[in-house]
TrEMBL record:
Organism: Halorubrum hochstenium ATCC 700873
Residue ranges of the region described as Disordered: 1-30, 168-203, 208-227
Domain of life of the organism encoding this protein: Archaea
InterPro entries attached to this UniProt entry: DUF7983
Protein name: Uncharacterized protein
Basic and acidic residues: compositionally biased ranges: 168-177, 194-203
Length: 227
């Protein structure tokens, strides 16, 4: 049985009103250093076979190391800011879940010694000899080396290790590449929106064809006499 209704149906078309609220999943570009660096890092990872680093050129490895370093630093700064905000919002020690994980408010105790004389006097009064708790202070040893002829090797065990550190960053090159990526993303979003709009319009047209009543058309339903 087909029933015609005069009530309006919900439209499946994308809202073209520019004054309407943005959709929850609409892409926005945050003004954050970690976002820009992460975008550049993702681009680099997609363009190179990083699963086998032995075959990656030295210049590419340098770029990856630089971007990873920048992402790590900026992500950690943002993580600390978010942690401070969460600390104000979480008022119990039970885990609170988001979409990708959960966090919980916790506490830890940090200890620092009181004044040296106070500590030594307290322990000595409890029967602990001062020599058992007094140790060599590295900072004071360094100060002593500056005013004596004692060689560093006479009082320190030294071991040299080599490592890589970031020397400088070509910000202009990063900004040029970043702008190119943003332009590509904007074009990609526009294409996706146009495709989605076409699909929705086609779907709505098919729905209208199936539910539309036209003059001159008759509709036949089976009754018990037809069976």
């Amino acid at each position: 049985m087909i029933i015609k209704t005069e009530e309006p149906t919900t439209s499946l078309l994308l809202d073209e009103d520019p004054s309407s609220d943005s959709a929850p999943d609409e892409r926005t570009e945050p003004d954050l250093d970690v976002y820009a660096d992460a975008l550049l890092l993702v681009d680099a990872l997609e363009r190179h076979e990083v699963e086998a680093l032995e075959g990656v050129e030295t210049g590419t490895l340098i770029d990856l190391y630089t971007l990873l370093s920048d992402v790590q630093r900026n992500a950690n700064d943002l993580r600390k800011e978010i942690a401070d905000m969460l600390l104000d919002r979480l008022h119990h020690d039970r885990p609170v879940s988001g979409s990708y994980g959960s966090v919980q408010r916790t506490a830890r105790t940090n200890r620092s010694l009181k004044d040296d004389d106070e500590v030594l006097d307290t322990l000595e009064a409890a029967g602990i000899d001062r020599s058992r708790v007094v140790s060599v202070d590295r900072g004071k040893v360094d100060d002593a080396l500056e005013v004596t002829d004692v060689a560093e090797s006479d009082v320190f065990e030294t071991e040299e290790t080599e490592y890589v550190r970031k020397a400088e960053v070509d910000e202009d090159r990063k900004e040029t590449r970043l702008q190119g990526l943003k332009d590509q993303l904007a074009a990609s979003d526009a294409d996706d929106a146009d495709q989605l709009r076409d699909e929705v319009e086609e779907l709505e047209s098919r729905i209208e064809e199936l539910t539309e009543f036209k003059s001159g058309h008759s509709y036949h339903t089976r009754s018990s006499a037809d069976r």
